[in-house]
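User: Reviewer 2 asked us to show a designed sequence for the structure in our supplementary figure. I'm pasting the structure tokens here. Could you produce the per-position amino acids so we can include them in the response letter?
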């Protein structure tokens, strides 16, 4: 435990350098685009829903390490899950970003804990999650 920050930094950099589920988005996909102008982050999020379940999810875009790592982690956290469960995961993550203690099934998300201390970066970390909220819409 002597250097939890270092561990967290490594997890974030790992997702940034080797993003999960990042690829070019096809035109016919259910997609939403969101930007975070304060940092210059851009994300395009795309998913497939079958029987209320996210059967595939991926993202494209460009941005800082926090925004891209958070997008990578988010896709890993919600793929294969049902919409109701996904909405719970989104709500949990947003509470986490407000400084609440939460538990994640997908533990890499805990690495974003340090972001809470830097309010300007919270928008970076939540960008992909806001995109996910939008693409799910009223579903
Ligand atoms: Zn950013």
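Assistant: Here is a per-position design you can include in the supplement:
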């Amino acid at each position: 435990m002597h250097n939890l920050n270092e561990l967290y930094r490594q997890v974030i950099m790992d997702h940034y350098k080797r993003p999960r589920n990042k690829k070019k988005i096809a035109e016919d996909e259910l997609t939403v685009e969101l930007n975070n102008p304060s940092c210059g982050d851009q994300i395009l999020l795309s998913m497939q829903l079958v029987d209320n379940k996210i059967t595939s999810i991926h993202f494209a875009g460009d941005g800082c390490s926090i925004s891209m790592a958070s997008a990578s982690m988010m896709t890993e956290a919600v793929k294969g899950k049902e919409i109701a469960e996904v909405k719970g995961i989104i709500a949990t993550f947003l509470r986490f970003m407000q400084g609440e203690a939460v538990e994640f099934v997908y533990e890499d998300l805990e690495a974003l804990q340090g972001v809470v201390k830097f309010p300007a970066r919270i928008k970076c970390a939540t960008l992909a999650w806001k995109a996910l909220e939008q693409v799910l819409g009223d579903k």
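For the response letter, you might also mention the following. The chain has a mean pLDDT of 93. Residues 36, 39, 41, 63-64, 66-67, 124 surround zinc ion (CB under 6 Å).
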